[in-house]
Amino acid sequence: MQQRQSYVRDTLVNVQRFLDANAAALGPVNTSGARKALDDAIVALTDHAVAQGEHTIGSTGETSKQRSLRMALRKQYLRPIARVAAAKLADVPEIATLRLPSIRMVGLELVDAANAMANAAAPYAATFMAAGLKPDFLDGLRACTEQLSTSLGGRTDHVIKRRGSTIALGAETSNGRKAINLLDAAIQQQVPDNAQLLAEWDAVKRIPKKPGAVRTGQTAISAPVAPAPEPAVASVETPQPAIAIAA
Questions:
Q1: Is 196 part of any domain?
Q2: Would you state the pLDDT for residue 94?
């Protein structure tokens, strides 16, 4: 949630509390469509903010998971297969060009390369196992590749849903502002002569545009003001009378 959207939600919650606290004076305002729109906007903003945060965490987690899977895929499977192929199968045309994928290869491109290596190595599985690879090295390679592919899809889902939550937050922010405007019209008509209540309402409905002053307790902290320097006083020499010297 952006900071300006957070300010809107905070204001909506304050408006909600104001309406509840002054229910007797405001009468039908609290049962109006404007009040319902306010309540709905608060719920929606909260839900979308939570969802946005969840999908941000989810996408970050999948990115970290993919990094670990790529490392495991290359270290445990692709590099050993490439080394055995170079040492034992260099004279086999079908597999002579088998090489470890570039470190810059990521995402689905790496998934495709790993599956291609598994398919190329499968007919020569006995040679790889005789060289010391585990009997299930192909199954392990394919399982790790599948986990990477699944993680790539999961991260994409999180990114799409996070984007949807972001768009929805913008829409609900606009709905919340509209609800305040509608409530303002209803309150002005309901209590036109209650100056104190209208003054409180005017303060509550304002959406701040930026944070206020930094405060400790109830006292605002301000930077100390250095005293102005005193003006320099120019010294004036008093002329001495000339002394006549007798001849």
A1: yes
A2: 73
Distances (CA, A) of 242 to 138, 238, 245: 117, 12, 10
Residue 196 to residue 218: CA distance in whole angstroms: 23
pLDDT band (50, 70, 90) for residue 90: confident
In this predicted structure, the answer to whether residue 78 has a pLDDT above a threshold of 70 is yes
As for how many domains the chain has, the answer is 1
State the residue range of the domain holding 155: 3-204
Q: Per the domain annotation, does 227 fall within a domain?
A: no
Distance, CA of 12 to CA of 38 (rounded, Å) = 7
User: Is residue 148 within 8 Å of 66, Cβ to Cβ?
Assistant: yes
Domain membership flag for residue 233: no
pLDDT at residue 245 is higher than 70: no
Percent of the chain surpassing pLDDT 90: 76
Angle at the Cα of 58 from the Cα atoms of 57 and 64, rounded to 5 degrees? 90
Query: Measured between alpha carbons, how far is 40 from 36 in angstroms, rounded to an integer?
Result: 6
Single-letter code of the amino acid located at 219: T
d(CA 110, CA 116): 10
Measured CA to CA, the distance from residue 55 to residue 33 in angstroms comes to 32
